[in-house]
Fold Rhodanese domain-containing protein.
Amino acid sequence: MINFLGRTRNVLARIRLAATPLVPSLLKDLAIILIPENTDIFQALRNFAVKLGIANKSLKDISDNDEQVVIQQFAEPASKPLVFASFCCGADAPGHGKFNGGVKELNYLVKLLREQGYEAYVVTYDGSYDSWLLDHQPHISMEDFSRLITYNQNIRCVTSWAIAEAFIKNSPSLYFWDMELFHTEHDHFPVLANLYRKKIRNTAAITRTIQAWHMAHFQRHCVLLPNLVDQSQWFPISEKCQSYRVGYMNEGLHTETYLEIIQDAVHKQGLELEFCQIQGVEEEVLEKMRSCEVFLTMNIGKDALWGEGGPLPPLEAMALGCIPIAFDILGPREIIHNGFNGIIVPRYRPDLMAEALINLYTIPGELDRLRYNTLALMQTCHTFKSRWPAVKEFLHL
């Protein structure tokens, strides 16, 4: 029953979204050509348009420009804006989930902003957080956040979670950084569509696929802002990298079965590889991944069609010179150029992942070639410095 209601709400939101651009033209034509302004029919149509949020003036004043959503561009302010980033839904979901990649990314965003001279904070319900990152940024409570926005007009409120109700409710406007299309496309869609109508000033996406999805659905510009990696912490130390060590993470119930298939194939080729499970707080993950030559990303993704798994672990592996081998799902496929800085294999094919791993260790010079390309790509395209122009565009700085 709950799934039925959720799907129904999703469908109704899509119908409304599709119909909304057509209504201004229809009302304009009716107002100008068919219906005198002083009639009851005209007033009823006007009230209907106001309720839809597409008109708050005389229908005769609706122009073609009103059919487009115009992104507000900010002039250079006299002072730098305060920036707040949060996933806070309320007391039960305070916004500081441990081992949550989105929480990590918002901390990175706040760190980058502070390095550029902006006052920025992560907002949780009571200002506290679980200590699991190497570098937690300044946190404030929802109460302090509400107080600060009362006395400051020049602010930016950022979230990646459309149902972060407590934070969004208190935010006068919103900057939405989409990191997970699985929720955006499905259970969060009605909420997001409503936010586009009422609060969203600008949107960013971590992949081109998510960027294109937003532009197609909402007819609005969407900035490409890929995942952030702090290379002041995530950098290679050659002495710590151990030959023939392959890292992996527990990606669900299939992990053990897939790993056995890969290990069996490797053993049949006479290769002696050490498989190291990577887990724990960030410091532990960093040290274990730094010791590996290759990282197997056995994430098969959340969505039945396009998969989708966070590209952050393989991106962090790349920062360490650790070569990623991943399934072809949304996320990893957009940071790994197959055969250049890593390997992409079809989803659900651990046998092909094993084949790619064997090739890395049997083709002379292959490991060194991919490692060189991986580090060159990271240092050129995936630094804080290279991300800063996109952050400025996204937040209208």
Observations:
- The chain has 15 helices and twelve strands.
- Confidence is low (pLDDT under 50) at residues 56-77.
- Residues 2-19 form the longest helix (18 residues).
- The CA atoms of residues 178 and 354 lie 33 Å apart.
